[in-house]
């Protein structure tokens, strides 16, 4: 049969995570008429109908008999004329067998993101890929709203306004509003970095373990125990955070510890927030004061408050008295961190760029609008929506 260029070739992709599971989903995408006759050799529907006769949106029980085996009971469902879902046993062997059988009928296997990009476009694939990497309910809700059409509608509206209006002021304002949320959008899957620092033996490892709720860092009552950067991901109030336990800051001739301190300083420079610990059970020192002066934006933690308070009024007024043993101050530390990392939470219905590609193209659009090149801005907007690779030369 000669296929017209308008017929989209079929492909198969596993849409559930790779590995063992109770149920796996394989999605066949493309003009399903290309499978007429061959699919019935692989799947025997209990209702006796062929694939083309199966109603859309109806779950169909049957037996997969491809590969010459006795077959496996499973269900299929036609989502629309160009998409079919196969729900089978979640074991890797079962999935591999079905994909191999489909390959024999001329239905190649692709990864799910490539399949979605071909059917729904780059923007849809990006949103789905970001959604798959969210780790909390709160962040997934935000991404789900964007992938449900909110972001596409905003981009399409921008394109229409930029194309029709003589004055680009309103469009430029909306682009700037989108860019204001670009860093926030990327952190929905990339945790904010929080580094714990302080002099040796102030209890950084104990505090990170207490904040995590389980033991991740080694705790030992000897200065220099932590010589490498120990990291762990968690979530505070639904926001993903990566905590880093670093070597205590001090002057040392010990080569290995000095290397750990150098790593600690590097992490501190690039952190989104810093927790600076001082030991309340020992008198304040010049080294403590120097650290507080060097990192004025750090959240100061007066640690080991359960062992006494030798600092009294010398502790900064904004500092948090905390104990990893009793749990005092831990909730306040989390609240202060979230307020520092996320001073604004976008209201529901706010369009938010989710990827570096989207933010980068929006920046290019802003540059073109400022320079007065509206046509070039519209071309980049089309690229933003459709993912078409255009060679754009940003004019000065």
What does this structure look like?
The protein is an alpha/beta fold. It has three domains: 110 residues, 2-Layer Sandwich (Gyrase A, domain 2); 99 residues, no CATH class; 150 residues, P-loop containing nucleotide triphosphate hydrolases (Rossmann fold, 3-Layer(aba) Sandwich), CATH 3.40.50. Helices cover 39% and strands 18% of the residues. It has twelve helices and twelve strands. The protein has a six-stranded antiparallel β-sheet. Strands 8-9-7-10-11-12 form a six-stranded mixed β-sheet, with helices on both faces. Helix 9 links the parallel strand 10 and strand 11. Helix 2 packs antiparallel against helix 3, helix 4 packs antiparallel against helix 12 and helix 5 runs antiparallel to helix 11. The chain is flat. The two termini are 53 Å apart. The N terminus and C terminus are likely disordered.
Please write the string of helix (H) and strand (E) elements: EEEEEEHHHHHHEHEEHEHEEHHH
Quickly count the domains. Answer: 3
Query: Briefly, what CATH class of the largest domain?
Result: Alpha Beta
CATH superfamily of the largest domain: P-loop containing nucleotide triphosphate hydrolases
Provide the descriptors you would attach to this structure in a database record.
396 residues; Rossmann fold; six-stranded antiparallel sheet; 3 domains
């Amino acid at each position: 049969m000669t296929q017209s260029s308008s017929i989209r070739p079929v492909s198969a992709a596993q849409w559930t995570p790779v590995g063992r599971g109770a149920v796996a989903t394989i999605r066949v995408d493309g003009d399903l008429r290309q499978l007429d006759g061959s699919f019935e050799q692989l799947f025997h529907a209990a209702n006796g109908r062929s694939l083309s006769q199966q109603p859309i949106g109806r779950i169909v029980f049957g037996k997969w008999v491809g590969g010459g085996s006795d077959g496996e009971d499973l269900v299929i469902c036609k989502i629309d004329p160009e998409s079919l879902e196969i729900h089978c046993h979640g074991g890797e062997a079962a999935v591999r067998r079905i994909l191999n059988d489909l390959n024999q009928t001329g239905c190649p296997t692709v990864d799910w993101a490539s399949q979605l990009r071909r059917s729904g476009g780059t923007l849809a694939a990006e949103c789905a890929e970001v959604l798959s990497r969210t780790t909390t309910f709160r962040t997934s809700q935000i991404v789900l709203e964007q992938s449900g059409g909110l972001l596409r509608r905003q981009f399409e509206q921008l394109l229409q306004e930029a194309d029709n209006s003589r004055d680009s002021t309103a469009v430029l304002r909306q682009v700037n509003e989108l860019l204001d949320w670009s860093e926030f959008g990327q952190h929905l899957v990339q945790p904010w970095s929080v580094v714990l620092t302080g002099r040796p033996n102030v209890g950084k490892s104990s505090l990170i373990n207490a904040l995590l709720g389980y033991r991740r860092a080694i705790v030992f009552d000897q200065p220099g125990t932590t010589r490498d950067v120990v990291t762990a991901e968690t979530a505070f109030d639904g926001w993903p955070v990566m905590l880093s336990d670093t070597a205590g800051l001090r002057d040392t001739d010990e080569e290995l510890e000095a290397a750990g301190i150098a790593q600690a300083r590097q992490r501190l420079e690039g952190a989104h927030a810093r927790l600076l610990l001082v030991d309340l059970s020992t008198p304040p020192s010049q080294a403590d004061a120097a650290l507080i002066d060097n990192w004025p934006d750090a959240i100061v933690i007066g640690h080991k408050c359960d062992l006494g308070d030798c600092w009294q009024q010398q502790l900064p007024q904004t500092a948090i008295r905390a104990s990893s043993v009793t749990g005092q101050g831990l909730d306040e530390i989390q609240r202060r961190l979230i307020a520092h990392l996320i001073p604004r939470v976008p209201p529901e219905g706010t369009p938010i760029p989710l990827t570096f590609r989207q933010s980068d193209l929006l920046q290019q659009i802003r540059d073109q609008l400022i320079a007065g090149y509206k046509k070039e801005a519209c071309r980049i907007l089309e690229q933003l929506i459709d993912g078409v690779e255009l060679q754009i030369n940003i004019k000065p």
